[in-house]
Amino acid sequence: MRPPTVSIALLLLIPLLSILPVSVPVSAARRSPRFLGDFAFSLPDPSRHRKAAYQYETRYFRQRLDHFSFAELPSFQQRYLVGPSDHWARPAGPIFFYCGNEGDIEWFASNTGFVWEIAPLFSALVVFAEHRYYGESMPYGSRDRAYENAESLSYLTTEQALADFAVLLTDLKRNLSAEDSPVVLFGGSYGGMLAAWMRLKYPHIAIGALASSAPILQFEDIVPPETFYDMVSSDFRRESLSCFKAIKESWDALEDQGQGHDNLVNLSRKFRLCRELNNTAELSNWLSSAYSYLAMVDYPYPSDFLMPLPANPIKEVCRKIDSYPDGTDLLDRIFAGVSIYYNYTGTVDCFDLEDDPHGMSGWGWQACTEMVMPMSSSQENSMFPTYNFSYAAYQDECVHNYGVRPRPRWVTTEFGGHDIKTALKEFGSNIIFSNGLLDPWSGGSVLQNISESIIALVTELGAHHIDLRPSTNEDPDWLIEQRKSEISLIRGWIYDYYQEKVASFSM
């Protein structure tokens, strides 16, 4: 029998939760009995929540290298961050757990202000867990050793990462004498995929998940492979048709001006590169990356999530491209536009094509094993060069780079994806899929309500997991309302959990 002190804590928390907001717009979620009524509510003052204000303690947890065998393998230290406990209603207050992405966990913690800002409203403890093989959470003691070959990288999988989170949470709750604390999962992008999948795979570990910009359907034979690049293109066409056409025409101009060594030297100078180009494909990839990232972070306010950028950066890029008089060299216009992304501050002397500012190392391995996301570029709707995805070519590249062949059907075998509506409706609950339609990854996510507890919150002008970002004084009304809806839904999950706990204790 559970100690009486725990049941008292649960009883005390139910009235606390009942005063939190419960209004959910009908357009965002179906009405259910617990959401009846509208209460006055305002989000925390954004001026009080800057990156420097997020206080946490850095801790390490010894993890098994392989959770699914009993082989004697070396363990590794997983880094995780724990927020202040002064507002946590222990021993049964909620735990807000962020599922770490493909990078340094401190970077994600600083860019996920929503979790920090709402935690005091729920008297919740905040935990950010770093993904294995990223940041400081390196097996074998170092990144060089962890990334040495296919054998050492073989434990970099989503299944192992989710098991890390489950083991960490179980141990943390036991050590804190908080076994009755409900866990709510959060994640954006790949982290959002992990949050949704963890809710499905470990329903006894967490009561719900907010999966923001989570493309869990961006896999073989589920969404058309043209979806991502068509949506990037649509974002530019939306701002300016002439800008869209200029970018579409620039690829041929790039090939024409890049014929021969001397012309490659001239292109290198035109685009202020730190070294001479070996071929035009290097420059094409650099430009394509900028356009894709701009679509992802087309936020309505200035940001530095990927790069320092102005508000509505695509609008600014197109304004720059369109501002040149007739007769101006097309690639000069393109360089001026893309400089908004790569050099908005004006402090970059030259551009290093090898420099990856986003810390994405490791994702190449995951993309060559289980995270195979086919992508093509259509001739009619895309501003990018026409390209048809070839699995054979993709496989050859993975074998060349990593010595492995992809398993494109494994991720949907493991987590589902085909006939996702039936699977989620029959076997899932308490998941919010939030997406903005400016985000090209939204094309691979869940955009319709599946049930009364599998909810899609879709905003027309939202970009990549904008709802999880720190609140600002420039937040538009639709973003404020979206966050209110998310708070209300999470509040309902926690309220139901405590009600069920109290009912089971009184039986």
Number of domains: 2
Q: Which value, in Å, is the CA radius of gyration?
A: 24 Å
Looking at CATH, the homologous superfamily of the largest domain is Alpha/Beta hydrolase fold, catalytic domain
CATH architecture of the largest domain: 3-Layer(aba) Sandwich
Average pLDDT score = 89
CATH structural fold name of the largest domain:
Rossmann fold
Unreliable stretches: 1-12, 21-52, 356-360
Oligomer: single chain
Report on this model:
The chain is α/β, with parallel strands linked by helices and 507 residues long. Helices cover 41% and strands 9% of the residues. Helix 1 packs antiparallel against helix 18 (477-506) and helix 8 packs across helix 9 (241-257). The chain is globular, with a radius of gyration of 24 Å. 43% of the residues are buried.
Write a compact overview of the structure shown.
By secondary structure, the chain is an alpha/beta fold.
Please outline the helices and strands:
Elements (H helix, E strand, L loop, with lengths): L3 H15 L38 E7 L12 E7 L12 E5 L5 H6 L2 H10 L2 E5 L13 H4 L3 H4 L4 H18 L7 E6 L1 H12 L6 E5 L14 H13 L1 H17 L3 H10 L9 H17 L16 H10 L7 H13 L20 H5 L23 H12 L7 H6 L4 H8 L3 E6 L17 E6 L17 H30 L1
Parallel strand pairs: 3-4, 3-5, 5-6, 6-7, 7-8
Antiparallel strand pairs: 1-2, 2-4
Helix pairs in contact: 1-18, 8-9, 8-11, 9-12, 12-13
